[in-house]
Amino acid sequence: MKMKRRSFLKACGVMTGYAVLSMNIATEAMASVMSFVGLRQKSVYAADANSKIYKYRKSQNNPMIAKIYNKKNGFLHDGPCGHKSHELLHTHYIDRSAKLSALKAKGYKFNF
């Protein structure tokens, strides 16, 4: 296909116009989405702050938690980072890959 110089410049101008226009549309769409996200985030935080369901939004303000960690007669009297709370509230990793490999070698099939 042969194209004259004038036709080529017209085509380039049209393509540039479409590129600029589509970029402008994409920018406006992104701005509206981000505006919606900001409004949604603000409304979620406002609903959480005004919620009647959650009386104590922070665990340190909950009197039951304070009672558990009480220094005199609380169950976890050694504090939030103490030995007893660490023992009861934290998980431990156990490597079971060798046992899993042995079961796979015997022919067991797993769906994960």
From TrEMBL:
The keyword Ribonucleoprotein does not apply. The keyword Transport does not apply. Residues 1-31 form the signal peptide. Keywords: Iron, Iron-sulfur, Metal-binding, Signal. GO terms for cellular component: periplasmic space. Pfam families: Fe_hyd_SSU. PROSITE patterns: TAT. Gene3D superfamilies: Iron hydrogenase, small subunit. Residues 31-97 form the Iron hydrogenase small subunit domain. GO terms for molecular function: electron transfer activity; ferredoxin hydrogenase activity; iron ion binding; iron-sulfur cluster binding. This is Ferredoxin hydrogenase small subunit. It comes from Maridesulfovibrio ferrireducens.
